[in-house]
Each structure stands twice: as C-alpha cells, then as structure tokens.
Amino acid sequence: MRADGGVARVAAPNSGRGRGLVLGVFAVALALRALYLFDIRDNPFYDSPIIDAQYYRDLGWALSRGEGTGHAPFMMPPLYPLLLAALFRVTGPDLQGAHLLQIVLGATTAALTALLGLRLGGVGVGAVAGALAATNRAALYLEGDLLATPLAMCLDLLFLLLLLRFLERGRRRELVGAGIAAGLAALAVPTVLASLAVLAAWLLWRRRVGAAAVLVAATLLPILPVTVHNAHASGALVWISANGGINFYLGNNPEMRRTAALRPGPEYRRFNDLPLRAAGIVHPAQRDRWFYSQGLRFCAGQPLLALRQTGEKVLQLLHTHEGMRDFDRQYFAAHYSRFLRLPGWSFAWLLAAAVVGMVWARRGTAAETALLLFLASYALAIVAFFVTARYRAPLLPVLSVFAASGALWLVEVLWRRAWRPAAVALAVAAGVGTFSSLDGLGASGVDTVEAQYRVGTAYQQKGDCERALQCYAAVRRLQPDHALAAAHAAQCEQRAGRLQAAVDLYEGILQQHPDYVEPMVNLANLAWAHHDSLSAVHYFELAVATDPLFAQAHGYYGLFLLAQGAAPAAVRSLSRALELDPSWESLRLELARACVASGQSQRALRELDTVLEVMRPTATLELVRGEALQNLGRREEARAAWERGRRLDPTNAELQQRLRPGP
Fold first, then answer.
1. Percentages helix, strand, coil for the chain, rounded to the nearest 5?
2. Contact 516, 483 (CB under 8 A)
3. Deepest of 188, 374, 416, 655, by most Cβ within 10 A of its Cβ?
C-alpha cells in the first residue's frame, strides 16, 4: 500500500490476455449496438437524417458520384463524408451500410478504450473501462445517427494509444502513427488539434524537441491534401473546413444563449449572412475569418460578459444532461428506443469516479500525464466554442479509463479497510456527482416543440407528407407563431396538390412575419408554376425588396425572367444571385443560357468554362455552348459541341434538332 492509503497497480497483462479482453469487449459492444440498431430501425431519422447528418449524407452521395464542393472549400470537416462516399460506391445510396459502419466504429471505440485501460492499469481497469464505453448511452445514441463523432472518437483513441506506446518504447514509427491518427481525427472533428498542440508543447517542455516536431509534421500529412483541395477550389487558405468561425461566434457573442440554440431556418440564415450584411463578404474563407474576428472582438470588448458566458459553458460541460444540438436524446428515447430507456449510469457518476481515478489512483506516470493533458485541452477547446453532448463525447473514453481506475482503487482500499482515504474519496465523488446533477441553467428540459418539428421534417424528407403535417399541426398548437412549421406544412400541402391550403399558409406566415422572405419566393414559384405571371412578379419583387441580399430571391426571379423571354433582366438577376452566393454552381449554367439569349455569347462561354472547373460536361451544357459558338459564327465548333452533347444524351430532342441536316 502507498503512503496515502492507496495500493500499487497490477502489472500490465500479457499480450494474449490483453487481446482476449479487447476482442471480448468488441464483441459485446457490437452485439449491444446491433440490438440497438434493430430497436431504432423504425424511427423517422433512420433513413431521413436531419441537419448535420443530412449534410454528411448528401455530400457523401455527391462525392460518390464524382462531384465536388464547387468553387468553395469544404464547409464541414470532410473525412466522414469521404468515408461515406467510399461506402456508397459499393452499397449505393441505401443507408443501411452507413448505420452498420457507425456501430462498428462504436464497438471499436469500446475495444480501444479497453486497450487504453489495459495500458494504464492492467486487466481490471481495461475490463471496467471497456464495459463503461460499451454501455455508454450517449455514445450509443450518437452512433445511431450519421455523424462524424464515432469516427473521431476512434481516431482520437488511436492517436493516444500510439502516443503512449512512443512514450513507453521511444520508437519514432509510433510517433509518426500518432501524428497521422491525430491528423485524420482532425479531419473528422478538428477539436483534437488543441490537444495535439498542448501535447507537442509538453514534449518540448520535456526537452524532446525532435519528437514534438515529428508529431506536428506527421499530423499535417493527412491534412495538407484537404488544404490543397480547398485552395484549388476556392483560391484561399482553408486548412480543413470553413465552419469553425461561425461555430466560434455562435458561442462568443452578447446573445450566446440564443445563438448557440439556433437551428437551420430564417433566423440561422440571417446569422450566417452577417459577414455579407455587415461587410459585404461572400467568400467562405473570408467569412470564416470575419466570424472569428467578431468573436474575439466581443471577448476583448466585453470581458466580464465573456467570462460569465465561459463559466456557463464550463457548467454545461460538466452537467450530466446530454445536451443535443440536432435532436434531444430524452425525447428520442421516450418515443423511438426501448433500449435507451433501460436503467444505466449517468455522466455525473462517470465524472465522479474519474475524479477519484485522477486524484487518488494516480501513479504519476508520463502516460497518465498525457491523458490528463488531453482531457484538459480538449475540454477547454469545447468551452471556447459552445457545448453539446456531441462535442463532449470524445472525452468519454478517457474519462471511462480514469473512472475504472478510480472505482477499482476504491474497491481495493475498502477491501483493505483503509477507511480514511476511502471516506475522503467517496465524499469528493459524491460532491462531484451531485454538482454535475444540479441544473442551475435549465439544461435538462426537453424542447418538445423543436423535437416534434424535427420529426416532421424527417417525415417530409421521406415523402410522408400526411404524417409530417400531423407533426407540424402539433407544433403549431403548442406554438401558434412557429413560422418554420407553417412553411413546411405549406410545402407538404403543395406536394399533396392542395394548392389553396399552401397559399393560405404562406400568406398567414407573412401576416405574422412580414420580413420572412422565403414564403414570398415560394408563393412566387407557386404562381409561376400555375401560369400566374402577375402574381409571380409581385411576390418576386416583394422578396427582392424585403431582403435585397437573399440570393434565392434573385436566382429564382432570374429563372422566371429567362422563362418569360426577358433575357437581359434575367442576366442581371442571375448575376446578382451568384454575387451573393458564388457556390450556387447549377445557376451559372442558366446564366450562360441567359447570356446567349441576350446576345452576350462571349460571356456565356466564360461562364460555361467556370462551370466545367467543378462539374462534369452535360448535354445541356454542350447545347448552350454550341448556341453561343454559333452566335459567334464558329459553326464547326458549335456542331462539335452539339455532337459531344448527343453522345452524353442521345435522347435530347433539342440536340437532335440542332444536328438535323439542313435542306
């Protein structure tokens, strides 16, 4: 027994026992996740993901078809959608394979957690840590969605395990592997870069300059190809993705509580457009820097408020409630998962046991120091932005290792009747658990309105408009002025052919929210589709006047004008839309068509060349190119373009007409 009443750790197990334990944890975790996947298979989000999961799925589909990001950098970290793209090339667009991938990643995380516990404390710590990771309901819930977090957790653990092996053996190949794993983890969730920087600084402090340099250089290896892609696509330096700035400003501004809770919709769009509205900035890289600068300016200009908000975020980080950004786990468990309703341990008591492990069961090894530095730096990086369970999840495996160590230390100390250290540790653990369970910020409440609205959007994506309408009606009963629910209900009515009901809903929204420009554009498009040109013009012009910086209003108005034969006006509207949203790549082809119709054929060719930088040739593109070339008197080149178009689409009637022999 140590002088403080603790006990010495058992030696690490032999490799055979270790492999058996890790494989056993993997098998149990995978079995639990298979049961969970079967349990949630009928929930509406299973094949209709929302918000970030929808983005990952859609980008994965696009990448699997050979499409890219257009003239823009990656807007979110790209590794997970790249992995989905590789999977979709094999399985097609069905999401069953993606869900299987998620549970395999979750089981791998549990196994790697067990392996990390083995390295720190032997078989007992490895077994308990693996069991905690395998039965973590927060992680299980995240694995049931198509999010990058499970992938990041695996790669974070691989980074730590390889770093610990380097500290133990001193071999550079483990250090290179650790850096590559950290770089890949950053391409899934970049927060790990904060921990990498702290651990590299720690190596420098230990006078291991070469090791720190190798670690940082190896981390850059997987990141640099993404940086090169972003520079080639956008012409600007974006290391990984261009969404860090807005996430930073969401959590660092005078209205943090409101902005951190924003979800996709008109209010979020207006927040997202702040660089454009305040400084005329549209380029993604410049927008990213603008948001960072505004967040830092707030912190410097209102330090007391910023400090108070930081304290709130620390409390959120330590609170037991699993705050979800996209959908509430409590609502999901109550309605869609019997598995998640089973009794289990909470974050509060995981944290309490982990504190015992960090304080009383420590041996003071370099490995433990590295893990503590990882926890502290990763936690501070989360607090620097804003806190959700998804962002906190990568802390859970390391906390599980310390919790296992602390729990086993308590058992052994009690067995040896070392009452005093056990009593102190238990008192501290009880205090930590109680503190974590207190809800001073009102974090534990379930936002039923938001949850039902999101269920409705999932049913709407699935094409089940009647069930979606039921959800939207329930939302509007609880919150009659919920504009988004009314707008989506109008879309469902429109899709069901009940046009007057859709018009009534859109007009009702405008009575309550006269600045809500999206319903104006929808009413204009609805009038256009039913040949009511006067109403279409009225609503398009109302939308443009209400929000001159709304790209969709200009874009759809331009398409309408082009269809009406007003080509010069269409060129102006389409050009303005692309000035406001340069990433609207498909609109550039329509601008080229409008340029041809208005006699600006040379400009049309330039627009088509821009399109071809990021999109594959299509029959329509070659048709427009041929028309522009013919207007310029380059008849042979025009015919060659039309021939290329016919090869791409032999059924295209317009191309057949152009290529028909003359009299």
1. 75, 0, 25
2. yes
3. 188
Q: For residues 232 and 459, what is the distance between their CA atoms, to the nearest angstrom? A: 38
- pLDDT exceeds 60 at position 142: yes
| Distance, CA of 630 to CA of 636 (rounded, Å) | 8
- Per residue in 248-306, pLDDT (tens digit) is 999 999 999 888 888 777 888 889 999 999 999 999 999 999 999 999 999 999 999 99
The string over 111-131, giving b where at least 16 C-beta atoms fall within 10 Å of a residue's C-beta and e elsewhere, is bbbbbbbbbbbbbbbbbbbbb
**Tokens for 124?**
């007992």
Answer for the pair 250, 84: CB distance below 8 angstroms, yes or no. no
* CA 476 – CA 456 distance, rounded (Å): 12
Question: Whole-angstrom Cα distance, residue 386 to residue 257?
Answer: 10
Pick the closest to residue 186 from 218, 219, 214, 164 (CA basis): 219
The identity of residue 55, as a single letter, is Y
Domain ranges of the chain: 241-306, 517-595
The per-residue pLDDT for range 6-59, each reduced to its tens digit, is 433 444 445 677 889 999 999 999 999 999 999 999 899 999 998 899 999 999
CATH fourth-level superfamily of 517-595: Tetratricopeptide repeat domain (1.25.40.10)
What is the DSSP code string of 190-242?
TTHHHHHHHHHHHHHHTT-HHHHHHHHHHHHHHHHHHHHHHHHHHSS--SS-S
Contact 382, 191 (CB under 8 A): yes
R_g (Cα) of the chain, nearest Å: 28
What mean pLDDT, rounded, does the chain reach?
91
